[in-house]
Specification:
146 residues, alpha+beta, 6-stranded antiparallel beta sheet, 4-stranded antiparallel beta sheet, 10 strands, globular
Length: 146
């Protein structure tokens, strides 16, 4: 009888962890590009939330200059603090990473149900010379509720 209760408690714990993982997945977004992995996340920081955007490059690709240009759609600008389009520079030779405070709730959405596309743009250079390009990534976002 005690073993059955322990198994039921373990199942409930696993179900809770799975639902927490699903909730966490809704606040994260990522895409693989020619330059590498672009990720965005809504992270709780203190009493508020922050939108983080980062690029992790692959195979010797560099972001040159180390700058991200970020633009937010008009329908959600009242929920994001800052002036847009925004330029974020990398520090100490590190790839640029943006941490943008949010004034309201923001969520990642699907391509068919969103309030616009958050655009991340950067110039990348692979190891082969004279083959640099510009990457534009559109992230579907929606004004969320808290």
């Amino acid at each position: 009888m005690r073993l059955t209760a322990l198994a039921a408690g373990g199942a409930a714990l696993l179900a809770g962890l799975a639902s927490a993982g699903a909730a966490r997945a809704a606040s994260e977004w990522s895409a693989r590009t020619e330059a590498g992995q672009v990720t965005a996340a809504v992270v709780k920081r203190g009493k508020g939330q922050v939108l983080t955007v980062a690029v992790r490059t692959d195979r010797g690709v560099r972001i040159m200059p180390p700058v991200l240009r970020i633009d937010v759609p008009a329908l959600v600008r009242d929920r994001v603090r800052g002036r847009f389009p925004m330029t974020v520079r990398g520090k100490d030779g590190q790839p640029p990473r943006a941490s943008i405070p949010l004034a309201g709730a923001l969520a990642f959405a699907g391509p068919d149900s969103n309030d616009g596309m958050l655009r991340v743009e950067f110039r990348y250079c692979p190891p082969e010379p004279a083959r640099c390009g510009v990457e534009r990534v559109d992230i579907p976002v929606k004004a969320g509720t808290r």
